[in-house]
Amino acid sequence: MDRYINAPIDNEIVNSLKAGDCVYITGTIYTARDAAHKRMYEAIKNGENIPFELKNNIIYYLGPSPAREGQVIGSAGPTTSSRMDKYTPLLLEHGLKGMIGKGKRSDNVIESMHKNNAVYFAAIGGAGALLSKCIKKAEVIAYDDLGTEAIRKLEVENLPAIVVIDNKKNNMYESHK
After folding, report:
1. Contact status, residue 159 vs residue 135, Cβ threshold 8 Å
2. Does residue 1 sit in helix, strand or coil?
């Protein structure tokens, strides 16, 4: 089923999403990859603030290529999600509601998604140039020393993704073998 949702998302939206739904996300989302996740994880563990409020937000596992002249952002394809798995449960406990990436998630992450009412979306790998057209504004907000792995605040319009794992642990990777 095609769904149009606005980010940030709340429990009502998360509860309405089912594995297999095609979604088009409009609103504010954030980017973070391995190094940024490690820094956020350590900051939370040390009782420090992180660069953005996790509650009800979506993180896109993205390290974009440099923007060409006249573009908001370069190629914006997803990175492999499992590299963030060791940090994800803590972020979910602090209110993260959605993640966009590619590939499988660990049992620990899936259990934490269920417990914390969150959803995992897959974006199409290899379609980064097309996905970048859905990004209307991109701003580095933290960890700019990480280059492409810096945290960015994105304004997106109809960013396409598929609900791969919903909050009830329905998992398209497992059910469509």
Report:
1. yes
2. coil
Contact 22, 5 (CB under 8 A): no
Tens digits of residue pLDDT in 76-91: 999 999 999 999 999 9
Q: Which amino acid is located at 42 in the chain?
A: E
Say if residue 143 is exposed, middle or buried (CB neighbours under 10 Å; 0-12, 13-18, 19+): middle
Residues lower than pLDDT 70 in the chain: 176-177
CB 25 within 8 A of CB 57: no
DSSP letter string over 15-84? Answer: HH--TT-EEEEEEEEEE--HHHHHHHHHHHHTT---SS--TT-EEE-B-PPPPPTT-SSS---B-BGGGG
